[in-house]
Design a protein that fits this description.
The protein has 469 residues and is of the alpha/beta class. The chain folds into 4 domains: 130 residues, Response regulator (Rossmann fold); 171 residues, Rossmann fold, CATH 3.40.50.300; 73 residues, Orthogonal Bundle (Helicase, Ruva Protein, domain 3); 67 residues, Homeodomain-like (Arc Repressor Mutant, subunit A, Orthogonal Bundle). 49% of the residues lie in helices and 13% in strands. It is built from 19 helices and 14 strands. The strands form 4 sheets. Strands 2-1-3-4-5 form a 5-stranded parallel sheet, with helices on both faces. Strand 1, helix 1 and strand 2 form a beta-alpha-beta unit. The longest helix has 32 residues.
C-alpha cells in the first residue's frame, strides 16, 4: 500500500450503516467521505479524486449504483468501485461487475471482508493510476501528449500518430514552419518497433545537390576532389531505424530520382560506386510547401510524392489550436526555469490573456522562444506584462520609485475611467462579466479562475451554471 491514506467515498442513504462502514475502513487509516444520495455523490465525485468508491446499489432508484458506476468511469477510469447489495439484487451486482465494478459485497457486511476487498481495490486503483502517469510521462517525452497539447485538433493528430507509429509506412508530415515537424517524426520513431535503432534527421533544403547526395547515400574514396576516404551515408547509418527528411520539398530533382529508387528497391548506391547496398530504413519526411503545387510547377516528382505520402499527417498551426497554449506555456516555463535556475511562482492573468490571444505566426517555436525570454528577463518570480516581448504586447516598466510617483498622478484617473464603464449596471451583470473575463484569461481553467476570483471551485461552478456561461 502507498504511504498516503486511501481516499474512499462511501455512498449509502442509511446514515447508521454508512457510519459503520467508515468506522471499519478508518482502521486502515483511510480518508473517508460520506454521501447519502446519488446527487450528493455526483457533486463529491466531480470535486475530488477517490481511490475507491463503495456504493449501495439501492438508493433513490433501483439502478442508482449502476448510474454512479457509469458516472465515475467517465470522470476517472482508475477509481475502483465496490457495490453493496442485498440478497434480492445479486443479478444487478453481477451486471455492475460487467460494467466495470471491482467487486460486490452482500448485506449484512462482513467487516473484515470489507476491509480486505477495499485494500485490494485501493492497490488496484493506485497501480492503474501509476501506470497512467508513467504512460503520460512517456507520451510527454516522446511527444504524444503534454507538450503537443490536448485540444481536439491535436488529440485527433495524436490518435493518428499512435496508429501509424507501430507500422513501417512512409509518413509525410505537413505543417507551417515552427509547428514541430521533427518532434512528430521523433515521436513516431520512439513509439515504433525501431525505437532502439538510430533516428537520423537531415534537412534537405540546407544543402547543395552534391553535398546532399553524399550525405544521403555516402561516397567512396576519390568520388570527388575532397573524397579522401569512403563515407557512410545517412541511409546506411540509419539501417534498422528511421530516417527523417526535413524540407523534402526543397530536394533537387536529380536527388529526387535517386530517393525514389531507394523507396522502390530498399538499396542505395554510394556516390562514385556501382555497387548497391541493401538497407532496411523507414522513411519519414516533412515539408511546409504545397507539394501538389510543386508537382504542377515541375519542381517535384509526382511518383515520389505518392511514395512519400502513404500516410499524411497535417499539424495545425498554433493559432488554430489556442487551447494548447496554456499547456505548452506551462511546460516551457518549467523547462527554462530549471535551465536558468529560477523559481517562478506563477503568471498573471493579464499576461496569460495576452499570450492566449496572440496569433503566433511562428507557432510553437515562437512560443518556446518567448517563454525562454520571459524567464531570462523576469526578476521577481512572477511572469507579468513587463516580462513579455514588446512585439506580442509586453510593456516597458519604470523602476518602482518612479512608477509609484507616476501612479500618484495618473493611476487614480485610469482606475476611475475603468470603473465608470460599470456604473449603472446590475451586480449580476458585473459579476458575470468578470467571471467570463477571468475564465478567458486562464483558458478556461476553473481552478485557477476560482483562485483569482477568491471563491471556491463549487461556487464558481454554480455561478457558471447560473449565468449560463
Amino acid at each position: 500500500m502507498s504511504e498516503s491514506p486511501l481516499s474512499i467515498l462511501v455512498i449509502d442513504d442509511d446514515e447508521n450503516h454508512a457510519d459503520v462502514v467508515v468506522a471499519s475502513l478508518e482502521k486502515l487509516g483511510a480518508d473517508c467521505v460520506i454521501a447519502h444520495s446519488q446527487s450528493d455523490a455526483f457533486v463529491k465525485i466531480q470535486s475530488r479524486y477517490f481511490d475507491v468508491i463503495i456504493t449501495d446499489l439501492m438508493l433513490e432508484h433501483q439502478d442508482s449504483g449502476i448510474e454512479i458506476l457509469k458516472a465515475v468511469k467517465q470522470v476517472s477510469e482508475e477509481t475502483e468501485i465496490i457495490v453493496v447489495t442485498g440478497h434480492n439484487s445479486v443479478k444487478v451486482a453481477v451486471e455492475a461487475m460487467r460494467q466495470g465494478a471491482f467487486n460486490y459485497l452482500q448485506k449484512p457486511l462482513d467487516l473484515q471482508q470489507l476491509r480486505t476487498i477495499t485494500e485490494r481495490a485501493g492497490e488496484s486503483s493506485r497501480l492503474r493510476r501509476i501506470n497512467r502517469e508513467l504512460t503520460q510521462r512517456l507520451d510527454e517525452k516522446f511527444g504524444f501528449t503534454g507538450v503537443l497539447g490536448n485540444s481536439p485538433e491535436m488529440l485527433a493528430v495524436i490518435e493518428r500518430l499512435k496508429r501509424v507509429a507501430t507500422t513501417d509506412a512512409t509518413v509525410l508530415i505537413q505543417g507551417e514552419t515552427g509547428t514541430g515537424k521533427e518532434l512528430f517524426a521523433q515521436s513516431i520513431h520512439q513509439n515504433s518497433p525501431r525505437k532502439n535503432k538510430p533516428f537520423v534527421a537531415l534537412n534537405c533544403g540546407a544543402l547543395s545537390e552534391h553535398i546532399l547526395e553524399s550525405e544521403l547515400f555516402g561516397h567512396i574514396k576519390g568520388a570527388f576532389t575532397d573524397a579522401s576516404s569512403d563515407r557512410l551515408g545517412k541511409f546506411e547509418y540509419a539501417h534498422g531505424g528511421t530516417i527523417f527528411l526535413d524540407e523534402v520539398g526543397d530536394m533537387p530533382m536529380p536527388t529526387q530520382i535517386k530517393l525514389l529508387r531507394v523507396l522502390e528497391n530498399s538499396e542505395v548506391t554510394r556516390v562514385g560506386s556501382n555497387a548497391t547496398i541493401k538497407i532496411n530504413v523507414r522513411i519519414l519526411s516533412a515539408t511546409n510547401r504545397n507539394l501538389e503545387e510543386a508537382i504542377i510547377s515541375g519542381t517535384f516528382r509526382q511518383d515520389l510524392y505518392h511514395r512519400l505520402k502513404v500516410v499524411t499527417i497535417r499539424i495545425p498551426p498554433l493559432r488554430d489550436r489556442s487551447m494548447d497554449i496554456p499547456v505548452l506555456l506551462d511546460h516551457f516555463l518549467k523547462q527554462f526555469a530549471k535551465r536558468y535556475g529560477k523559481t517562478i511562482k506563477g503568471i498573471t492573468s493579464a499576461a496569460r490573456k495576452i499570450l492566449f490571444n496572440f496569433d503566433w505566426p511562428g507557432n510553437v517555436r515562437q512560443l518556446r522562444n518567448v517563454a525562454e525570454s520571459m524567464i531570462v528577463v523576469d526578476y521577481d518570480g512572477l511572469i507579468d506584462q513587463d516580462d513579455l516581448p514588446e512585439e506580442i504586447g509586453g510593456i516597458l516598466t519604470l523602476p518602482h520609485s518612479v512608477e509609484a510617483s507616476a501612479a500618484d498622478k495618473t493611476g487614480s484617473i485610469d482606475t476611475l475611467r475603468g470603473l465608470r464603464e460599470l456604473v449603472g449596471k446590475p451586480l449580476t451583470e458585473i459579476e458575470r462579466f468578470f467571471i467570463v473575463e477571468t475564465l478567458q484569461s486562464v483558458a478556461g481553467n476553473r481552478e485557477e479562475a476560482a483562485q483569482i476570483l477568491g471563491i471556491g471551485e463549487r461556487t464558481l461552478y454554480r455561478k457558471i451554471k447560473e449565468y449560463e456561461i
